[in-house]
């Protein structure tokens, strides 16, 4: 970020912030709430971090003309609020996290190697501190929006891998924006079977009625094979809670809650940072 501002007794100040890095990040607590028909509310409190970077600055008046480059370090404590909106983007769930805000409880700027007089240093650091607040807010919210969409793609791509075996796969692209209820997020997927990347149309036939007659015989074998296939695809990596099979007219619905375990989060971060 670059800019300029006029300060009393100094004149015009030109500045640039480079190489902004985040260190020693820690999170106190977080809360998550679904707002039906609206979106998601996320609050992350007591976020502590140290920001490091380089300030390029210069100023001039009829008294003095000076240019300098100095490393800086910022100790901060922040509350972060995000209200993401979910929508359908290219057949996948996408998130808009532009409704993002930061509340600074502490922000202390330390300049390294600065030999200016104390009063001038304080005047300059107060000005730079305000500027850095704006930079940090914009950068953090921008990165959150990027990471949210990468994570959404990762989850859907992982789910597609579960439903792929050799040349057979299932198109689970979403057909509309997700619906947010008080207890869960509901999404509608195509569910089209593909063979060799071509849509396979399965028409009703006498096989369906025959299957109904032999259902009791098929279930034990089908259960074992489905378990083998899902384990092969890596479904065991997720934490599954309260799975239910709900019969419907001509099809079944498998309903369950699942957790996103730590090892998959690590894998996601490795792919993201490569």
Automatic annotation (TrEMBL):
The keyword Metal-binding does not apply. GO terms for cellular component: high-density lipoprotein particle. Keywords: Glycoprotein, Secreted. Residues 1-198 form the Lipid-binding serum glycoprotein N-terminal domain. GO terms for molecular function: cholesterol binding; cholesterol transfer activity; phosphatidylcholine binding; phospholipid transporter activity; triglyceride binding. GO terms for biological process: cholesterol homeostasis; cholesterol metabolic process; high-density lipoprotein particle remodeling; low-density lipoprotein particle remodeling; phosphatidylcholine metabolic process; phospholipid homeostasis; reverse cholesterol transport; triglyceride homeostasis. It comes from the Eukaryota. InterPro entries: Bactericidal_perm-incr_a/b_dom, Cholesteryl_ester_transfer, Lipid-bd_serum_glycop_N. It is found in: Secreted. It holds the Pfam family LBP_BPI_CETP. Belongs to the BPI/LBP/Plunc superfamily. BPI/LBP family. This is Cholesteryl ester transfer protein, plasma.
């Amino acid at each position: 970020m670059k800019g300029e501002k006029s300060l009393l007794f100094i004149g015009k100040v030109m500045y640039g912030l480079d190489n902004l890095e985040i260190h020693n990040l820690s999170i106190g607590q977080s809360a998550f709430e679904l707002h039906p028909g609206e979106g998601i509310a996320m609050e992350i409190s007591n976020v502590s971090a140290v920001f490091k970077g380089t300030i390029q600055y210069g100023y001039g008046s009829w008294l003095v003309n000076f240019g300098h480059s100095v490393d800086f370090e910022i100790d901060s404590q922040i509350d972060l609020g995000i209200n993401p909106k979910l929508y359908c983007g290219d057949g996948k769930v996408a998130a808009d996290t532009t409704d993002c805000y930061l509340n600074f409880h502490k922000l202390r700027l330390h300049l390294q190697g600065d030999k200016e007089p104390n009063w001038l240093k304080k005047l300059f650091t107060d000005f730079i501190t305000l500027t850095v607040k704006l930079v940090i807010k914009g950068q953090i919210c921008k990165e959150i929006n990027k990471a949210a969409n990468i994570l959404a793609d990762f989850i859907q791509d992982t789910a597609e891998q579960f439903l792929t075996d050799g040349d057979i796969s299932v198109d689970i692209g979403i057909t509309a924006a997700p619906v947010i209820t008080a207890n869960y997020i509901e999404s509608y997927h195509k569910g089209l079977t593909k063979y060799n990347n071509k849509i396979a149309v399965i028409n009703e036939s006498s096989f369906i009625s025959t299957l109904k007659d032999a259902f009791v015989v098929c279930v034990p074998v089908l259960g074992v094979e489905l378990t083998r296939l899902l384990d092969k695809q890596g479904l065991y990596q997720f934490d599954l809670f309260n799975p239910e099979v709900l019969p419907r007219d001509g099809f079944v619905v498998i309903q369950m809650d699942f957790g996103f375990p730590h090892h998959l989060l690590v894998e996601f971060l490795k792919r993201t940072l490569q």
